[in-house]
Design a protein that fits this description.
With 407 residues, the protein is mainly beta. 10% of the residues lie in helices and 34% in strands. It folds into two domains: 11-209, Deoxyuridine triphosphatase (dUTPase) (Deoxyuridine 5'-Triphosphate Nucleotidohydrolase, Chain A, Distorted Sandwich), CATH 2.70.40; 216-406, Deoxyuridine triphosphatase (dUTPase) (Deoxyuridine 5'-Triphosphate Nucleotidohydrolase, Chain A), CATH 2.70.40.10.
């Protein structure tokens, strides 16, 4: 049987806590107070549409909708998301999986695990192996709130492939409305072996209610008001188009970095601890403005455009065209309110692109569209924007590696 982490809420305890909480929602009870229910409540208006900001995430935890094994740590609540922490044990499994309806992740781990790794004092996860780690946060979502997860920026820039799994799900990184249960991280380092420990944060989760995505007219109006991207002829079809910068003009003649193989270990929690030269090869711009992506190699590039996310909105990078399967761009897709925003010290920030080619060499050209930023409404303006709090490592960025490397 799968061993429960010593610091984890058991399913029984979690359900008891959930049942002891009144979720007073405009969708369900209006303003009716049920006799005997606790005072703690969490209320949404019936017509609410948007991503929940930092203070509402904190309120969800106060109301028992988010169940952390330990109290949140500083900077864990971001402007529009919550960082998820690893528990104290990792399971090396034979292969990636989805539990599917009616099955739990714990049951699948019991079937597929090869061995267990204690993360209490830290442990190294090797490249191209698959690990499952129970997270310190569980959820007891109300019927009107869904959740979506994504790797953190620093995780993606290390080429650590990670996804969140929930019981009974058919999709990675998606937690359905009304979900009650634990969360798990699937982790597979692709380039560098990484040192992780209990409490390390690789993923983040957003909570939303209703339909938050801006339609074409709303996106056009927002761009007219805020100038979301620093080009005169912005492509705003199905989101703000972002292209790759291979000119070298914005980075001293360089266009990016290619990861080295057979390197040392990267401690995921160590900031500025590693020399760039030991892990990365800089890539100089070519006269023709092209870059050939070699199969299996990992690259850090940057967008040609500088973008911003106004305070009342959040954004997410999505593929430009799912049918273009030769390369993958941007593991970490969340852009918080205030990213690149002048009022938060940004003045436009370039999107750093985490690029991995697939089975065949592929030629990228300067200005080639590689992704789109889809903008969504916030349910309220965050108390602190990206760049105004601890942990905002990439404000006003250009071409930039993760925080682990000394510049």
């Amino acid at each position: 049987m799968i061993r429960k982490s010593g610091n984890r809420f058991s399913e029984k305890i979690m359900l008891e806590q959930r049942d002891a909480i009144m979720i007073q929602s405009g969708h369900d009870h209006g303003n009716e107070v049920i006799p005997g229910d606790p005072i703690v409540s969490f209320t949404l208006q019936p017509d609410a549409n948007g991503i929940l900001p930092d203070r509402m995430i904190a309120a969800m935890a106060d109301a028992g909708l988010i169940l952390p094994a330990y109290p949140f740590v500083e900077s864990q609540i971001q402007p529009a998301s919550l960082d998820l922490r690893l528990g104290d044990i990792a399971y090396r499994v034979r292969a990636s999986f989805l539990p599917g309806p009616g099955a739990t992740v714990a049951e699948r781990i019991d079937e597929l695990k090869l061995h267990e790794i204690d993360l209490t004092d830290g442990a190294v996860l090797e490249t191209n192996c698959v690990y499952i780690v129970p997270l310190l946060e569980s959820l007891a979502l109300p019927p009107e709130i869904v959740a979506a997860a994504n790797p953190k920026s620093s995780t993606g820039r290390l080429d650590v492939f990670t996804r969140v799994i929930a019981d009974g799900t058919r999709r990675f990184d998606m937690i359905g409305a009304g979900y009650h249960g634990p969360l798990y991280a699937e982790i597979s380092p692709k380039t560098f072996p990484v040192l992780l420990r209990e409490g390390s944060r690789l993923s983040q989760v957003r909570f939303r209610t209703g339909d938050a995505i801006l339609n074409a007219d709303e996106l056009d109006a927002l761009h007219d008001l805020e100038r979301l991207v620093d080009v005169d002829d912005a492509d705003l079809v199905n989101g703000v188009a972002l292209s790759v910068d291979l000119s070298g003009e914005n980075a001293g003649g360089f266009v990016g970095y290619r990861a080295k193989r057979h390197t040392g270990v990267v401690d995921i929690d160590r900031r500025g601890g590693y020399s760039v030269d030991e892990f990365w090869e800089p890539i100089a711009a070519r006269p023709d403005g092209n870059l050939i992506l070699d199969p299996g190699e990992f690259y850090i590039l940057a967008s040609k455009e500088a973008v911003q996310v106004p305070p009342d909105y959040a954004a997410e990078m999505v593929p430009f065209d799912p049918l273009v399967g030769e390369f993958r761009v941007h593991y970490a897709g969340f852009f918080d309110p205030g990213f690149g925003y002048a009022g938060a010290g940004g003045q436009g920030s370039r999107a750093v692109l985490e690029v991995r080619s697939r089975e065949v060499p592929f030629i990228l050209e300067h200005g080639q569209i590689v992704g789109r930023l889809v903008y969504e409404k916030m349910l309220g303006r965050p108390d602190a924007l990206y760049g105004q709090r601890i942990g905002s490592n990439y404000q006003a960025q250009g071409l930039k590696l993760s925080k682990h490397f000394r510049v």
